Amino acid sequence: MTDFNDLIDGYHRFRTSEYRRHRDRWAELSEGQSPRVMVIACSDSRVDPAQIFDTVPGEIFTVRNIANLVPPFELGGGRHGVSAALEFAVTQLEVPEVVVLGHGSCGGVAAALSKRFEGAPPGEGGFIAHWVDMLDEARDRIIAEHGTGPEAVRAMELETVRVSIRNLRTFPCIPEREAAGTLKLRGAYFAIADGVLHVMDDDGNFAPA
Question: What value does the CA radius of gyration of the chain take, rounded to a whole number of Å?
Answer without folding.
Answer: 18
